[in-house]
Design goal:
about 475 residues; about 0% strand; globular
Length: about 475
């Protein structure tokens, strides 16, 4: 009975989280299209310049405490209060640091507007972390319905702010205001629906537990964030803000479906699978099923986006963004593996092995830097191709401990995914071929999407793939709305 109840909780969680992510990313997509038509690649590039500094600061503000609290078997009031005090104090100190270092960052990029931009954007570190305990409470309750309502409302408000300001000519500040408005509204709404306030003082024991898990998580996140932002830093410094804007737009469109699915799975499956962390067989079976269903959904979406990148960009954001087409096509083959990476790494966190998580990150980033240094000097296209190679290498590395912990390594995973990969490649070939023979861009986009879906789903039906049944089960409305 307990297993069936957890299964239904998982399904309801996925239902609501998919609803949230679909609505949020759907709005983000539409809003992004409208704003990209009004703004320029330079506007996007300038707002992306301080990204590495803000991302690193965010890691220290959260310190991995949220992940530690979600997986802790018995969460106490002291844990929540200690996390709140730490995040609030850390956020204030980080803002002060960024406020005074903003002129140096602006000088590094020779872009004076970064001084006020950073000082405004960094305000998020003061109020953002204050919602961490409330968000953890909702996650542990598996209350994804409430999270969905909050997330969708914030994204809609951000879109309205951004579009209105862009329309009235505020340029890059429309992007800043949209992000700030979403964060502030999210804080207020989360506090309102959870109604939690600190009830105890600082706990040395709670901090010792949270920091003991989080410090290794911080180190791995620092490595990951620093590596992911090396390319934007170099592009922004030695290329131009416009080229950085082109790269970021291509990466943003490619990451939307993969991050969407990864966000759903991480938010729902981590607290659920943490409840079965001591049942090896059950955990292994659940991971295997999650992996197959994830690939079944994300692989065709990414290949479809790659195949139809040309009509997608020209029709929706106009020819001024044409330079990002080839980058988008390549990046899709990189990020299609992102949810699979996440699933394998998620296993280590469920098992509480943040030490192994850190070890893998060190290995991967050394390889990644070597590939980056070897490719980036030759231009963005070669760099993106190197990213695909790096993603495959990362998959081999990430599955090393999956084999040791649950006997589900690289070759077993590839064997489970072989039909999904084959069908996705066939669909890609069909859709890309259509773009070469059909002159009308709208027919390329709409016709290619429909025919691609029919080819993929038809193949899955003929092959009697279990993943098709699992997806049907997940999207059925029965027991989802409770």
């Amino acid at each position: 009975m307990a297993t069936d109840n957890l299964k239904q909780q998982t399904k309801r969680g996925l239902y609501w989280k998919f609803g949230e992510q679909f609505a949020k990313y759907g709005m983000q997509f539409i809003i992004g299209i409208l704003m990209a038509r009004m703004l320029t690649p330079t506007d996007y590039g300038i707002t992306a310049l301080p990204g590495v500094f803000l991302a690193i600061a965010g890691i220290f503000a959260s310190a991995g405490f949220g992940t530690a609290m979600v997986r802790k078997p018995e969460l106490t009031e002291e844990d929540l209060s200690t996390s709140f005090y730490y995040s609030t104090i850390a956020g204030i100190l980080i803002y002060i640091l960024l406020f005074f270092t903003a002129p140096w960052i602006a000088d590094f990029y020779t872009t004076p507007v970064l001084v006020p931009l950073i000082r405004v954007t960094a305000l998020g570190f003061i109020f953002g972390p204050m919602a961490t305990p409330q968000s953890i409470i909702l996650q542990r309750r598996l209350d994804f319905k409430t999270q969905t309502k909050v997330g969708v409302t914030c994204k809609l408000a951000a879109g309205v702010i951004g579009i209105v300001m862009a329309y009235f000519g505020y340029g890059l500040w429309s992007l800043v205001a949209a992000g700030m408005g979403s964060s502030l509204l999210g804080l207020l709404m989360t506090w309102y629906v959870v109604r939690w306030v600190p009830k105890t003082g600082w706990s040395k024991e709670s901090f010792k537990y949270l920091w003991g898990f989080g410090n290794k998580f911080i180190a791995s996140q620092l490595l990951d964030t620093t590596y992911n932002n090396i390319a934007p830093v170099v592009i922004g410094k030695f290329y131009s803000p416009a080229q950085l804007g082109i790269f970021n737009r291509a990466f943003s469109y490619a990451s939307m479906p993969s991050e969407h699915l990864t966000g759903v799975l991480g938010a729902v499956t981590f607290p659920v699978l943490s409840k079965m962390q001591d049942d090896e067989e059950r955990l292994a079976n659940s991971y295997r099923r999650i992996l197959r269903v994830t690939a079944f959904i994300i692989f065709p979406l990414m290949m479809l986006l790659s195949a139809l990148a040309h009509p997608f960009i020209i029709l929706l954001v106009t020819a001024k963004w044409e330079a990002c087409i080839i980058l988008l096509q390549i990046i899709c083959f990189n990020l299609m593996w992102y949810p699979i990476h996440s699933i394998n790494l998620n296993l280590l966190l469920v098992k509480g092995r943040s030490d192994l998580f850190l070890k893998l990150e060190v290995i991967k980033k050394i390889i990644g830097v070597i590939i980056l240094v070897a490719t980036l000097p030759f231009g963005l296209i070669i760099y993106c191709i190197g990213g695909v190679v790096f993603s495959i290498i990362c998959l081999i590395v990430n599955t090393h401990y999956s084999q040791k912990l649950i006997n589900f390594g690289f070759w077993k995973q590839m064997n489970d995914l072989k039909y999904t990969i084959l069908l996705s490649l066939v669909m890609y070939g069909v859709c890309f071929g259509l773009t070469q023979v059909i002159p009308n861009l709208w027919l390329q986009l709409l016709g290619g999407g429909i025919i691609g879906a029919l080819v993929y789903l038809g193949g899955a039906y003929l092959l009697h793939m279990d993943e098709l049944k699992d997806v049907k089960y997940l999207i059925s409305r029965k027991n989802n709305e409770q």
